[in-house]
Amino acid sequence: MRLNILTMTLAGLISFGFVGWRVHEMHRRAVSHVGIIEDLSASHPDGCSSLQGITEHLLDRKTVSSGSWLTFLAIGDESTANEPKLVARYPIPVNRRIMEGPKTGLRHRQEILTDLKMRCGKLRPTMVSPIFQGVKQGVAELRRLGCRTDSSCKLWIDSDLEENAVAAIKTTLEHPGNKSQAFPLPLDNEGISVAFCGFAVTTGRIVDPSGREIRKPRPRDPNHDDNLRRTWARLFTKPELVTFDPYCPAPRRSDATGDVR
Question: Which of 48, 75, 111, 173 has the fewest Cβ atoms within 10 Å of its own Cβ atom?
């Protein structure tokens, strides 16, 4: 009898110690905040679909730590003096099987996706592309949340990369050899991985909200795509942490009930 009591007590202490260790490890791990910048310019369609795909990709990651946040910004326009708009901020759900069941994490995930879809659907296309200002404030927001040089934070930018608000960037994109204007100071992205995606998603004609054609973008070619990547990589202190993907992660198909397949 005494042996059984001792065995049960020891098992309880081991279980309690394991739970305490897991909780300590979750709190000790550096936070991995994520930001998403959405380019709403009329030349870059299907932003809400890409936003859902990026968010699903993020929520599938197993490396996100407790206490991390997802921040969604949309590039600005004349109404915001080209400053980006803070659309939403969410605590990233973490799969804590010891603390809660898997259904709770799935419910939190679906709540985020549903709310993002609703908020994104209310945004309107812009006639300007102040992409750099959006990225700059996205980096600043991650720094404010606590991203440091030893962090594993990430900033996604869904954009065609056709900046037209900062004259020096716009000129370099249109005329690669022209260096007559001073480039902006590089953004400090140490501890922040920067992922540009969707730059191949662009339209052949730009129309205003009334449907009137404003202009036709210059046709793309391999040299221009290379110049896009080269120019934007120059705008960061750690270009080795900057990646480019022609297309953003595609959203998964959902059925009528909203369940993801």
Answer: 111
Q: Which of 215, 186, 188 is nearest to 203 (CA)?
A: 215
Phi-psi group of 81: left, alpha or beta (phi > 0 → left; psi -120 to 50 → alpha; rest → beta): left
Tokens of 38: 């959405």
Give residue-wise pLDDT tens across range 209-236.
Answer: 555 555 556 667 789 899 999 999 999 9
The two beta strands, 242-245 and 192-197, are: parallel
Paired with 171 in beta bridges are none
Which residues, in sequence order, are bridge partners of residue 70? 34, 90
Interval 153-166: pLDDT, tens: 999 999 999 999 99
What whole-number distance in Å separates Cα of residue 127 and Cα of residue 123? 13
DSSP assignment letter at 72 = E
Q: What is the pLDDT of residue 17?
A: 44
CA distance 206 to 44: 9
Alpha helices (H) along 122-235: 131-145, 167-174, 222-233
pTM: 0.79
User: What is the C-alpha separation between 76 and 54, in angstroms, rounded?
Assistant: 20
pLDDT class for 10, splitting at 50, 70, 90? low
